[in-house]
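LOG
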Amino acid sequence: IPVAIAIGGGFGALVALWSDATGGGEALVTRLLGGSEAMAPLLALLVARTALFMVSYAAGTPGGMFAPQLAFGALLGLLFAGAVEVVAPGLIAAPGMFAVAGMAALLAATVRAPLTGVALITEMTGNYALVPMTLLAGAIAAPVAAALRAEPIYDLLLARTLRLSGEGMPRR
């Protein structure tokens, strides 16, 4: 319990000081879809959110996974668009599209549900014109994650829960 209290207190302080680094990230994702963020703050947010996610996950403290994954994906997509812009100025017309592609790709890779991701992201953005791009991002990311033998995140969580409860992982 003291670990949970320390983590909760630390997260509480961050909510007050830098709310974009904490929470589900719904407001952050909505803002990022505009695609007008500077690279340095995006990178700082990605590092902070990654570190905080790992601390929360490792400590076993409760926290959501789905919305933070979307925020990670949007940050990664915009950072990629920014890197392309550095290499080829003027090539990226709409960086926000890369935020959407990043969300779809990360969701497809970590959850292995690319079609569900496309449906959820389309509902979230309300933009059906982005469906082909999100399908392509998911169609690339899911097999790449499988080829790298990365386990789907919810399978890992189930195995962890069963291990902690003393039960075995069900066979597929």
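LOG (cont.) second protein
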Amino acid sequence: MKRNIAIIGGGIAGLTFANCLSREDFEIHIYEKKPDFGEVGAAISVFPNALCVMDEIGLLDQILENSGQFQNMYLKTYSGDTLSKTTPRSDYPVICTHRADLHKTLLSGINANLHKGIGVTQLENLDNGQVKVSFDNDESSVFDAVIGADGIHSVVR
């Protein structure tokens, strides 16, 4: 029997988590309060530990296609003097990519029920170990687990 999982937040963290779950074991629901799934902003640095995860979920090559790799990194003072220089040493590179490109890649092959324009108003732990989630559209649903990936103003946290 599939476990019913709610991921609150359809950004990079929520989508990455959803991609890590086994599709055979979980029915995944992702709730995003914004009217559309998407990411705004500029570039994001992605380090080897995160790229290892992307490799495990089969998205590494696609992410690297749209990214630039850091060859050297410098720590500088406010006036521009170099304090130190390092070269990344790992099986995976250190990259810089546009947030929207990373988000699009994470969303591209996801096997989940996507719910946009729906915010969470309340969580209630039930006696049977499940969680009742109430939404701002006056509906509610019960899940086996709820994952909070809804950012700095998290309702879940």
